[in-house]
Amino acid sequence: MAKILFINPVIRENEKPAHVPFGMAQLVAICVRAGHQVQVFDANAWRPTDDEILAVLKADEWRVVAIGGLVTTYGFVKKVLRYVKKACPQALTVAGGGFLTPIPHEVMALLPEIDLGVIGEGYVTLPDVLARVDAAEEDWHEIPGLIYRDRDGVCQLTAGRPLLEEVDTLPFPAWDLFPLDIYFRNSGLLLSEEAMLAKRHLGVIASYGCPYRCKYCFHLGLSGEIEIVEGPAGRRLCLTSKRKVRAHSPEYVVAMVAEAKKRFGIDFVSFLDENFAVLAKRKKWFDTFRALWVRAGLRPRCITERRDHDPETCGGIHWGTTAHPAVVTPELLRGFKELGCAHLDYGLESFSDAILTSIDKGSTAKLNAQAVIETMKAGIRPIPNQIIGFPEESFDSIRGNVVAWKKLGIRAYPFFATPYPGSEWYSLFKEKILAQYDHRLEDFLLDLGDATKITAVISSRFNAVELLGLRELMVNLDLRRIDAYERQRESCSTRNP
């Protein structure tokens, strides 16, 4: 059986590692179940020097080196792949995830060190690749969901890989092969009191996909919204309007969390679903989940006994997750609270109806406000994610956000509108993006972060400097200076038509 080294890339060098990579941990578990010899080099946790990276690569005769991550890991992936080819040239390099799937041909051209690229989910594709490796039959054209180099060095897309429908067939993540002690030291999340006081936190996934089609969402190019189509120039990848939600059974989810609690003593869980509330709206699913969660002893004692949270005596599992303002109801929120939900991460994005419509958010300013109010009434902390720099951004939309924050009693630190590969924005504004980087795609990929910093500007009204300044005025709730700046802009445009 193949000897495989999985590499978890560094995500944010300026932040402590806090999240075990769920998807990679699940892929590792799949390979272990198949009988392969698997090791994990968690660079995100260990933050190794270059010499340490080379030492790990030279430590064994790896047959396969697998690496994957979001586009924000591109720089680290690029460096490591060069080391792989230097230290273990015999290894087959397999890459996947958000940095490759939406733009496979471009990434393969930029990174000649990649032998195989996995398009979309790797749950079935990677085992198929490893089976070919074990059989010494490295002919890839019949394996769906790949991009590979043919004998002439030309990159070829294989047929599309259907989504895995029976997700309960997946094993639980191989958390024990990751340095949990490092991650647990950084468990506290500044999102809610319970999350901040957590000592052993893990992220899990209960469902895959989201029914909404927000134009900024890079998941459009990751979770099945892609198809491989035949064209005059051969196969090509395209986004579709298909947004399917696939869910684990309540039994699977509760058993997974209960096992993690028993084995690792976890006290907080983040449901990493794109939109957990959409899953919970399925009444039969959530009713069963709620009953099983309580029966497994996962409901925190402070909830059961109606007292303040004490992390030393609480027992059970507090949790946080994602929600859409158009989905939540007071009843659903009360159900969440009764099970230990501490915070809900809302992609509010804006309190401008015009902007919400333009990005296909599926919400309104009224629904956004209502979700925040009802969440606080339920005793759950709402996390209001917002964006500044929309193509249609205006002083009115900026002002509307600040007014809404004041009225609701919330604060936000907006992300910048970022056209990640895989999003509809990237497709719409590709030429505008590349023009800002002298048509060097790799410079853009290297510059991408978590949207707290500004990269390519897609706003039609504001430049990067203006957006940086306006964000600070928003954070400070400074309507007076926002108004003053608008008047100044208008005065300048009048003098210089």
The CATH H-level homologous superfamily of the domain at 3-159:
Response regulator
Secondary structure tally, helices: 20
Strand content: 15-25%
Q: Could you name the CATH class of the domain at 3-159?
A: Alpha Beta
Largest sheet: 7 strands, mixed
Give the rounded overall mean pLDDT.
Answer: 93
Computed Rg = 23 Å
Report on the architecture of this protein.
The chain is an alpha/beta fold and about 500 residues long. It starts with a strand and ends with a helix. The mean pLDDT is about 95. Strands 2-1-3-4-5-6-7 form a 7-stranded mixed sheet, sandwiched between helices. It has 20 helices and 17 strands. About 40% of the residues lie in helices and about 15% in strands. Strand 6 and strand 7 (about 155) form a beta hairpin.
What is the topological layout?
Elements: E1 3-8, H1 22-33, E2 37-42, H2 43-46, H3 50-57, E3 64-68, H4 74-87, E4 92-96, H5 104-110, E5 116-118, H6 125-134, E6 146-149, E7 155-157, H7 180-185, H8 193-196, E8 201-204, E9 207-208, E10 226-231, E11 234-239, E12 246-247, H9 250-264, E13 268-271, H10 276-280, H11 283-295, H12 301-304, E14 318-323, H13 330-338, E15 341-349, H14 353-358, H15 365-377, E16 381-388, H16 395-408, E17 415-416, H17 424-436, H18 441-447, H19 464-475, H20 479-495
Parallel strand pairs: 1-2, 1-3, 3-4, 4-5, 8-13, 13-14, 14-15, 15-16, 16-17
Antiparallel strand pairs: 5-6, 6-7, 9-12, 10-11
Helix pairs in contact: 3-4, 9-11, 16-20
